[in-house]
Amino acid sequence: MQYEIKGGAFPVVICQLNDGEQMITEKGSMVWMSPNMEMKTSGGGVGKMFSKAFSGESIFQNIYTARGGNALIAFGSSFPGQILALEIGPGNEIILQKAAFLASEPGVQLSTHFNKKLGAGLFGGEGFIMQKLSGRGMAFAEVDGELVEYTLGPGQQMIVDTGNVLGFERTVAIDIQQVKGLKNKFFGGNVGVAGLVTATDIIAQCEGRLTSGTLGVPAVMLREEKDTFLDDITTDQLAQRLGVKVEVLPTSGGDEARALLRSGLHIARRRRA
Hints:
By secondary structure, the protein is an alpha+beta fold. Helix content is 16%, strand content 33%. It folds into two domains: 2-169, Double-stranded beta-helix; 194-263. The strands form four sheets. It has a six-stranded antiparallel beta sheet, with no helix packed on it. The chain has a four-stranded antiparallel beta sheet with strand order 1-2-7-4, with no helix packed on it. The chain has a four-stranded antiparallel beta sheet with strand order 11-12-9-14.
């Protein structure tokens, strides 16, 4: 199999296949092919279908085979960015974010990879359930946006926002670090997730330090009851303890702006001299 990657914002990889050679892709990735390409769909059994659905992959995969001579087939990216060619082999397994897999030769095995670090599952979103490429052959991944590659030495670390990690080799370990911010006594340490901040945390760090008569609280901090934090303290109790008015701010930008104006909070833009 020979390939060529073409295109700009929405690139394609064009694969030239000899008679009998195959390519595997998920549903919807093929953009054009020669008429002598034969397609069949496979789910790989109930167990594999469940695993694929859990990792964000398509449940079914399409297998394309060149019949009666040489053939070509093109696979396209589903979003603006790039297509990355990966040569998979023994000792060169690649871990990708879920849904990054585009296509591969049949010798490449696609499976679900679970991050062993629990923090990745609790706080990261991305990085907990990923895709592992193993076996032998060429594979292609679609990259959302631009791509920067780094080679890490033994013990070397790199801090990256989880949404910007495409993948890494099997020898690289990934864990989620909490963003330093409001100290969280309920869960311990510093938590950068607003939905895990409690009223106790706010009281401990804001009591006696507020300069405004109104405190804005994102709605995501509250339970379904809409007025109670995770530690069972209500917004009224928080207001009484801090001696200020507590305004619950919606998560959407427009509603939040209206809530800020309604509560008497104002945002001033400083003019340049």
